[in-house]
Task: structure prediction
Amino acid sequence: MMSTESVSNEAIQQAREQLDAHVREIVQWHFSPETGSPFWLDWAEKSGWNPAQEIESFDDIIARFPHFQDEWLRDLQPDVWVPQAFKGQPFNVFETGGTTGMPKQRIGWTDYKVDYSEFSEKISDDHFPRDHYWLMMGPTGPRRLRLAIEHLANVRGCSCYFIDLDPRFVKKLIADKKFDVARSYMDHVIDQAVTILKHRKVSGVFTTPKLLEALSEKIDLWEAGIRGVFCGGTTMDPQYTRFLLEEVLENRIGFYPTYGNTLMGLAASVPVTKEDNFSITYYAPQPRAVLRVVDAEKTDEVKDYDEWGRVELTTLTKEFFMPRFLERDEALRREPRAPYAWDGVAQVRPFGAMEKKIVEGVY
Amino acid sequence: MSSIPHIPCLRKGAPYESLDQIEIKGYSDGQTLASVSTVNGGIIRRDLRRIDQGKAALRKFTVDQLIDISAKAGEAFLNGSLPLGDKGHTQSPEDYIRTLSSTSGLPHVMVKRNMDKIYHALTHMRTVLTGLTRGLDFSILDKGYGAQFGTRISYYSTAKALGLVMPSNSPAVNSLWLPAIPLKTPVIIKPGREEPWTPYRLIQSFIAAGCPAEAFGFYPTDHEGAGVILDSCGRALIFGDQNTTAQYANNPGIQIHGPGFSKILVGDDQIEHWPDFIDLMAASISENGGRSCINASAVVVPKYGKEIADALAKKLGPYKPTRPDDRGARLSGFANPKMAEYIDGAIEQDLKESGAEDVTAHYRDGSRKVEFEGGTYLCPTIVHCDSIAHPLANREFLCPYASVVEVPQSEMLEKIGPSLVVSAITKDPDFTEMLLDSDLIERLNLGAIPTMKISWDQPHEGNMFEFLYKRRSIEREE
Result:
């Protein structure tokens, strides 16, 4: 299990230096004609400055780059994002959200494997025994998550069963107030999972909070052999987290909340404890991605610790560069916590959740 | 001890402090009076799976013993100092009155009247159950079968619990669920957001009187949680307006308690004596601040409509807001001022349609909506309508409001629509027979009886015994 000790200033400084070095490497990669992508080379030409020469640190990214526009991922053909160094290599096309119209698309080759191989080191063998079987019940389709979970299982010597859930359909049903159909669809998904759990040996589950709750009402998870649950996708406020831990998982099944999406990868959480009032804090897979909690009105400014702000994501890999993307989420900014020597984001929820009702769906 | 009481959820009677809490504040001074734990539907669903334990705990008692416990609970409710929450606070009857008044807007005198009604129901539970069961020997419910009236009788319970989605504005409606306890049915309560006080105090009264705590679920919760209670208990009551309750209209397991559209009808044979009935009409319209479903919201007469409207307006129009502790208080404040604004706007909007006049405007000093010492009030409103088809003729609002409309006696029953209570002032046998034959009237008062009169041996909006029990055929080898 991970430590909950605080982090030394030296460790924070070291992480910062590592991030800055990584920033220089990635920016040079994307803005050099030999390796960079058509989009960023074209952007640099139009903007009149050369990031490859002028960006020295992560602070420079914040100071010099505007917010990444999600329309670019909707409107442009995917090949504009192919770095020269990857030219000719077929890529995966992963999609996010997309309730209506064209979804955002991100291309990739092996980033998801890097993220999830690293994540494998953060989960316990007691909860996710090696050389066994997993079940994923959640959005598959065009999402990175499906391949990522299978890779994670495979890294640990496991194989994974899949039950699909189409979140776009669920969001439409709820927006159209077709609650009966939404409930029926959820039951359909759960029934399939119950069938698998009754007939196959499974020890680890990936799913969303609401599906986990619904599954636990149909089958005794512990008796079914489940020892670890890896959960993400929608909001888990502290009381709901406590409900999952104490009532659904009965304080005996390992619980690993995660925050992630196609654009970032996977942010792991520090262990959820009663002492933290069941508040979940996530840490980005730095230096490949950086999360900041910024003032929603003045996005150049970071909020103070334990204050709410909008989540801003910067992705820094050789496959994909995305500076300062404003997520549709808000969170509390949290201090570094071992083993993470950088800021965390806590109690993530849809941006504006306190002001308006957000359709997150039954999933 | 924290200075502010915390009201926990009660899961099979055991306190549960949630991380999600809301604060209940006085409506006029904004003072925080308690924090209340709220839970999600998932917790309720889980607890309901084990509700049989609550039922088993009640089964250990006979109906007679539970009737005695109810009576003791009545005494505790009216006079006792009872636990308020899980942080060591207690609540005296005076505290209860003051607190409920400050969150509901009901003046003290009306809270006390509601308290007395609940006390009466608890201390007359034998009469209540005898009325509901039509004189059933209660030992038949204890044993599950028996013989009475010269025949074999067996009843079985229809529900694992009685679910309740309660309102915030009318504490006396809690009296509706009280028979469930002596009928050995656990109660699962979602209190109104602003009114945890009455159901919590009642639960504490029952527990203090010796009732098993496992028989009570108290779940301040959201819309999803309310749905779980309504869908999962087997039998449930919901209180709310038509928008809230319409989706449950065809569900036989759910009793809907919405607007009553209660009315006073005067027959041709009595209309010449109309001045004699003005006090009765005014009381039916305005008692309890005009907030009950059994308050009259229309007076339907064959003639003298204008005169009756004027007389009622003259009597009710001068009513003004008073301090909550004024013993002569007649109006309730609005905990949510927007509700008062909405009602006032709705009445004004419909008055623009020709054929209706706010007669009280002549006798009222100022506007209908008034501010008084930080509270918002709606003054009595009597609207004369020249047709029962007018949008204001058959409406119900949370204030002393009624229309007065002329309808020929021969057409009254065709036109009044569903009515929870009808007080029909008539001695005409033919009209009486028509009234008795009507399926639109839930409770019928024949004669000069206010709509607000409650008889505890009569069912109210459905018979709770028939809701919670069904008779089965039985043969048993001797």
Notes: Chain B has two domains: 6-258+461-472, 262-446.
